[in-house]
Design goal:
27% of the residues are buried. This protein has four helices and six strands; from the N terminus they run E-E-E-E-E-E-H-H-H-H. Helix 3 (156-165) packs antiparallel against helix 4 (183-195). The protein has helices at 119-131, 149-154, 156-165, 183-195, and strands at 38-44, 53-60, 66-69, 79-83, 86-93, 99-106. The strands form two sheets. The protein has a three-stranded antiparallel sheet, with no helix packed on it. Strands 3-5-6 form a three-stranded antiparallel sheet, with no helix packed on it. The longest helix is centred in the middle third of the chain and has 13 residues, at 119-131. It is of the alpha+beta class and 201 residues long.
Length: 201
Protein backbone atom coordinates (compact mmCIF):
# COMPACT_ATOMS: atom_id res chain seq x y z
CA UNK A 1 0.00 0.00 0.00
CA UNK A 2 1.45 3.33 -1.01
CA UNK A 3 1.15 6.04 1.56
CA UNK A 4 1.56 9.69 0.80
CA UNK A 5 2.83 12.02 3.36
CA UNK A 6 1.61 15.50 2.81
CA UNK A 7 3.82 18.15 4.28
CA UNK A 8 2.19 21.47 4.87
CA UNK A 9 4.32 24.50 5.33
CA UNK A 10 2.91 27.27 7.43
CA UNK A 11 4.29 30.74 7.42
CA UNK A 12 3.15 32.73 10.35
CA UNK A 13 3.75 36.44 10.31
CA UNK A 14 3.93 38.34 13.52
CA UNK A 15 3.33 42.02 13.53
CA UNK A 16 4.66 43.87 16.52
CA UNK A 17 3.28 47.22 17.47
CA UNK A 18 5.69 49.22 19.50
CA UNK A 19 4.37 51.51 22.23
CA UNK A 20 6.26 54.50 23.45
CA UNK A 21 5.69 56.37 26.71
CA UNK A 22 4.94 60.04 26.43
CA UNK A 23 7.92 62.32 26.84
CA UNK A 24 6.13 64.89 29.03
CA UNK A 25 7.58 65.62 32.50
CA UNK A 26 5.88 66.61 35.73
CA UNK A 27 7.33 69.58 37.64
CA UNK A 28 7.64 68.85 41.37
CA UNK A 29 5.53 71.07 43.59
CA UNK A 30 7.38 73.99 45.19
CA UNK A 31 7.50 73.23 48.96
CA UNK A 32 7.79 76.96 49.67
CA UNK A 33 4.78 78.06 47.63
CA UNK A 34 2.52 80.04 49.91
CA UNK A 35 5.02 79.91 52.78
CA UNK A 36 6.18 83.17 54.37
CA UNK A 37 9.08 82.93 56.79
CA UNK A 38 9.10 85.84 59.24
CA UNK A 39 12.32 86.53 61.15
CA UNK A 40 12.34 88.52 64.42
CA UNK A 41 15.56 89.68 66.05
CA UNK A 42 16.77 91.34 69.21
CA UNK A 43 20.26 92.75 69.71
CA UNK A 44 22.48 93.45 72.70
CA UNK A 45 24.77 96.46 72.40
CA UNK A 46 28.55 96.08 72.23
CA UNK A 47 30.97 98.00 74.39
CA UNK A 48 32.80 100.69 72.43
CA UNK A 49 35.62 99.09 70.44
CA UNK A 50 34.87 95.59 71.73
CA UNK A 51 33.18 92.69 69.93
CA UNK A 52 30.89 91.58 72.73
CA UNK A 53 27.46 92.36 71.29
CA UNK A 54 24.96 89.68 70.33
CA UNK A 55 21.89 89.00 68.21
CA UNK A 56 19.14 86.49 68.91
CA UNK A 57 16.80 85.51 66.09
CA UNK A 58 13.58 83.50 65.96
CA UNK A 59 11.45 82.53 62.97
CA UNK A 60 7.85 81.60 62.28
CA UNK A 61 5.93 80.36 59.27
CA UNK A 62 7.45 76.90 59.03
CA UNK A 63 9.56 74.50 61.12
CA UNK A 64 13.02 73.04 61.49
CA UNK A 65 14.79 76.39 61.24
CA UNK A 66 18.51 77.00 61.04
CA UNK A 67 20.08 80.46 61.05
CA UNK A 68 22.84 82.28 59.19
CA UNK A 69 24.61 85.57 59.92
CA UNK A 70 25.60 87.68 56.88
CA UNK A 71 25.32 84.70 54.48
CA UNK A 72 27.63 82.55 56.61
CA UNK A 73 27.15 78.91 57.54
CA UNK A 74 23.77 77.90 58.93
CA UNK A 75 23.51 76.80 62.56
CA UNK A 76 20.77 75.38 64.73
CA UNK A 77 20.87 78.23 67.24
CA UNK A 78 19.48 81.66 66.45
CA UNK A 79 21.98 83.36 68.78
CA UNK A 80 25.16 84.99 67.47
CA UNK A 81 27.71 86.26 69.97
CA UNK A 82 30.98 88.23 69.94
CA UNK A 83 29.71 90.85 67.51
CA UNK A 84 31.11 94.33 67.01
CA UNK A 85 28.82 97.32 66.59
CA UNK A 86 27.34 97.32 63.09
CA UNK A 87 24.48 96.21 60.87
CA UNK A 88 23.88 92.50 60.29
CA UNK A 89 21.52 90.36 58.21
CA UNK A 90 20.03 87.20 59.67
CA UNK A 91 18.65 84.49 57.36
CA UNK A 92 16.36 81.75 58.68
CA UNK A 93 15.93 78.58 56.62
CA UNK A 94 13.28 75.93 57.27
CA UNK A 95 13.73 72.17 56.89
CA UNK A 96 12.03 72.48 53.49
CA UNK A 97 14.50 75.14 52.36
CA UNK A 98 12.18 78.15 52.70
CA UNK A 99 13.99 81.31 53.81
CA UNK A 100 13.34 84.71 55.32
CA UNK A 101 15.70 87.53 56.26
CA UNK A 102 15.84 90.39 58.72
CA UNK A 103 18.42 93.14 59.20
CA UNK A 104 19.33 94.34 62.69
CA UNK A 105 21.89 96.64 64.24
CA UNK A 106 24.27 96.06 67.12
CA UNK A 107 24.95 99.48 68.55
CA UNK A 108 27.97 100.61 70.53
CA UNK A 109 27.35 101.38 74.18
CA UNK A 110 28.04 104.87 75.42
CA UNK A 111 31.28 105.19 77.35
CA UNK A 112 29.37 106.13 80.49
CA UNK A 113 25.86 106.72 81.72
CA UNK A 114 26.04 108.53 85.03
CA UNK A 115 24.64 111.68 86.53
CA UNK A 116 21.25 113.35 86.70
CA UNK A 117 19.07 113.20 83.58
CA UNK A 118 19.10 116.52 81.76
CA UNK A 119 16.13 118.27 80.11
CA UNK A 120 16.92 117.18 76.54
CA UNK A 121 17.29 113.53 77.57
CA UNK A 122 14.13 113.75 79.70
CA UNK A 123 12.17 115.06 76.70
CA UNK A 124 13.41 112.19 74.53
CA UNK A 125 12.57 109.59 77.16
CA UNK A 126 9.03 110.98 77.38
CA UNK A 127 8.66 110.59 73.61
CA UNK A 128 9.90 107.01 73.74
CA UNK A 129 7.69 106.17 76.72
CA UNK A 130 4.61 107.36 74.84
CA UNK A 131 5.40 105.95 71.41
CA UNK A 132 7.85 103.06 71.75
CA UNK A 133 8.10 101.72 75.30
CA UNK A 134 4.52 100.49 75.14
CA UNK A 135 2.92 97.13 75.88
CA UNK A 136 4.30 94.41 73.62
CA UNK A 137 7.12 96.57 72.33
CA UNK A 138 10.22 98.27 73.83
CA UNK A 139 8.98 98.16 77.42
CA UNK A 140 10.97 95.04 78.25
CA UNK A 141 8.97 92.70 76.04
CA UNK A 142 11.57 93.01 73.31
CA UNK A 143 15.03 94.50 73.05
CA UNK A 144 16.04 97.26 73.47
CA UNK A 145 14.16 98.22 76.62
CA UNK A 146 13.53 101.96 76.43
CA UNK A 147 12.27 102.18 80.01
CA UNK A 148 15.95 102.04 81.11
CA UNK A 149 17.81 105.36 80.96
CA UNK A 150 21.18 103.93 80.01
CA UNK A 151 19.62 101.81 77.26
CA UNK A 152 18.27 104.98 75.68
CA UNK A 153 21.78 106.47 75.81
CA UNK A 154 23.30 103.29 74.38
CA UNK A 155 20.83 103.23 71.48
CA UNK A 156 20.83 106.98 70.76
CA UNK A 157 22.05 106.61 67.17
CA UNK A 158 19.53 103.88 66.40
CA UNK A 159 16.72 105.95 67.92
CA UNK A 160 17.59 108.87 65.65
CA UNK A 161 17.95 106.60 62.62
CA UNK A 162 14.55 105.00 62.99
CA UNK A 163 12.52 107.81 64.57
CA UNK A 164 13.97 110.75 62.64
CA UNK A 165 15.91 109.70 59.52
CA UNK A 166 13.53 106.88 58.53
CA UNK A 167 10.29 108.64 59.48
CA UNK A 168 7.59 107.92 56.93
CA UNK A 169 9.23 104.68 55.72
CA UNK A 170 8.56 101.03 56.45
CA UNK A 171 11.48 101.00 58.92
CA UNK A 172 10.35 103.94 61.02
CA UNK A 173 9.77 103.91 64.75
CA UNK A 174 6.94 103.74 65.81
CA UNK A 175 6.42 100.89 63.39
CA UNK A 176 3.78 101.17 60.65
CA UNK A 177 0.83 101.33 60.45
CA UNK A 178 1.31 103.86 63.25
CA UNK A 179 2.04 107.41 62.14
CA UNK A 180 5.60 108.76 62.33
CA UNK A 181 6.57 111.06 65.17
CA UNK A 182 5.56 114.68 64.86
CA UNK A 183 8.14 117.09 63.54
CA UNK A 184 8.33 118.64 67.01
CA UNK A 185 9.21 115.29 68.60
CA UNK A 186 11.76 114.55 65.89
CA UNK A 187 13.37 117.94 66.52
CA UNK A 188 13.67 117.13 70.24
CA UNK A 189 15.49 113.88 69.44
CA UNK A 190 17.83 115.67 67.02
CA UNK A 191 18.55 118.38 69.61
CA UNK A 192 19.54 115.76 72.19
CA UNK A 193 21.77 113.94 69.68
CA UNK A 194 23.48 117.17 68.64
CA UNK A 195 24.04 118.16 72.26
CA UNK A 196 26.07 114.98 72.87
CA UNK A 197 23.40 112.27 73.40
CA UNK A 198 24.29 111.95 77.07
CA UNK A 199 22.12 111.25 80.08
CA UNK A 200 23.00 114.65 81.52
CA UNK A 201 22.17 116.69 78.40
Amino acid sequence: MLCRVLVFSFIIAFNFVSCSKGSGTTTPADPCAGVTVVVATSATAADAGISNGSITATATGSSGFTFSLNNGSFQASGTFNNLAAGKYTITAKSAAGCTGTQSTTVVAKAASCTGTPGPLFTAVKAILTTNCAVTGCHNGTQSPNYTVDCTIVDYADLIKLRAVDQAGTGDQMPQPPRAPLSQSDRDKITAWINAGKLLTN
